[in-house]
Amino acid sequence: MNILVIGKDSSLDECKIKFGPAHSYRAVNSHQEAEKFFGNSDIIFDFIIDKHPEQMEVYRDHPKVIAFLNTPKTSLLNLVVGFKGKISCTLFGFNGLPSFLNREILETTIWRDQDKEKLQSVCEQLQTKHLLVDDRVGMVTPRVVFMIINEAYYTFHEGTASREDIDLGMKLGTNYPYGPFEWSKIIGLHNIYELLSAVYEDTKDERYKICPLLKKEYLSIKVG
Fold this sequence. Notes:
This protein is an alpha/beta fold and about 220 residues long. It has helices at about 10-20, 30-35, 75-80, 115-125, 140-155, 165-175, 180-185, 190-205, 210-224; strands spanning about 1-5, 25-30, 45, 65-70, 90-95, 105-110, 130.
């Protein structure tokens, strides 16, 4: 399959690792550039649409396009409803946050029930297992992992344990590949802060209320 990646070089690398050498890949870093290659692409993985929802317009006039949109910080339906035009192509949501694509199971969403069979077919062609989850902010895995990271910040902030001890305890106790603070560096603190903010706004659930220390470090990064 011809796979078009819209995003950074790191996103292209993750796709190559996830889907393997059986496919051909092209990467661009803007939607305007990407649209030139829509006709020659079987599948599109859009890693940056959450930052540029106004670019949904590129999907308006391409009914044959099949695209996976990176939607953990929003939802697929939010992107579609927020666009004033009519979407006639096939769109799926996926968890494209750093380090989450390279898992055995591709976490996905749909906004129309009629797309379930198409999703199954596409994933078979990509030779990946997939998990269809509810189309809402945070999806499933990011909600769980980011909530754990947030709780780790509370634990450290309260002086209960050091960052190193928390990381080690989580890896030994849960067999996670990384500790919460290690994971936050890989994922990017801005992604964690922005997703938790969106989930809290969506649910008003206190479990997602951001630790003041996490917020402080996020703001320090933005200023720096």
